[in-house]
Specification:
There is one protein chain. The protein is an alpha+beta fold. Strands 6, 7, 8, 9, 10, 11, 14, 15, 16 and 17 form a 10-stranded antiparallel β-sheet that branches. Strand 12 and strand 13 form a beta hairpin. The longest helix is centred in the middle third of the chain and has 14 residues. The radius of gyration is 19 Å and the shape is globular.
């Protein structure tokens, strides 16, 4: 009988990652299950070598846990079948492919063969959903701080409004696409490159993006020329999916490669995980991930 090896992050979802993962006890009743906290896996090459090839791997968690797994295991030559059990706060990847939270685990290999990559400060990482500079990254950073301080739940919409008037510093940006076309923008609220349609726990930021696009195109969206009062309006329009109606303030570019440079350091989010003190990222499509 094959064993399902369930990889989870105990610290995810305000330290409830283990509890969420153990929902599989009921969903997969009768199966042989073994649980592994990511913090206890020191070497993934050795980890996979010690698991029979006919056993199965299940990654249990949200977008951040999935992102960490794919980056930690790149080129590990994983012979076992890999599944995903969506059990995070946002679950934007699962939502994008029509899956619901706590659904039956589904096979992942076809979704990770051509993930895009983002390079920040010389370090390259893969991403499933999006990478961005701007307000959403600032909100992710502030939410992480609140959770670290013991806050059980965070209202992201309220936090975003507070950040617009306090923490977030509007910047200028230079965007260069893969053909070398260079564009300049003032007073930027958000500069996001998307592989999927959703970000921020169900906000359809990029409704026309197709992660299975045969040409591997991504969608770049930048909200710009925004004083704080208008930024509130545009932010609200993003939440309800009406932001493309602001044609003077929201620019959309399709392509395989984008370099984004801000005029000053600001947080960057990669699938909801933040990197601080940076002012540039380079995103490129069609980056093969070998498992």
């Amino acid at each position: 009988m094959s064993t399902y090896h369930i990889i989870y992050n105990r610290l995810s979802r305000s330290n409830t990652g283990e509890l969420e993962a153990h929902m599989l006890d009921e969903i997969m009743a009768g199966e042989s299950l073994k649980y592994w906290n990511v913090e206890d896996i020191g070497d993934y090459h050795e980890f996979f070598r010690n698991i029979p090839t006919d056993d199965k791997i299940i990654v249990a968690g949200g977008d951040g846990t999935l992102n960490r797994f794919i980056n930690d295991t790149d080129c590990c030559n994983v012979l076992q079948d890999v599944y995903f059990f969506p059990a995070g706060s946002g679950n934007d990847f699962a939502r994008d492919i029509g899956k619901k939270k706590h659904c039956e685990p589904f096979e992942m290999r076809k979704f990770i063969s051509n993930l895009p990559a983002v390079t920040v400060n010389g370090e390259e990482r893969r991403f499933f959903n999006s990478v961005s500079l701007g307000l959403d990254a600032q909100v992710c950073l502030e939410a992480d701080r609140l959770k670290s301080a013991g806050r059980k739940s965070v209202n992201y919409a309220v936090l975003a409004v507070k950040c617009i008037f306090t923490k977030y510093k509007f910047c200028d940006a230079v965007v260069t696409d893969g053909d070398g076309n260079r564009r300049e923008f003032k007073d930027v609220l958000l500069a996001i490159t998307t592989k999927g349609r959703y970000f921020g726990g169900g906000v359809k930021i990029s409704p026309n993006q197709d992660r299975n696009d045969p040409d591997e195109n991504m969608t770049f969206i930048i909200a710009h020329n925004l004083p704080a009062w208008k930024a509130l309006i545009v932010f609200a329009s993003i939440v309800i999916g009406k932001h493309f109606s602001f044609r003077k303030n929201v620019t959309v570019i399709e392509g395989k490669e984008f370099t984004v440079e801000f005029s000053q350091p600001t947080p960057i989010q990669i699938d909801g995980e933040t990197v601080v003190g940076q002012s540039k990222y380079h995103a490129a499509a069609k980056h093969t991930v070998e498992l």
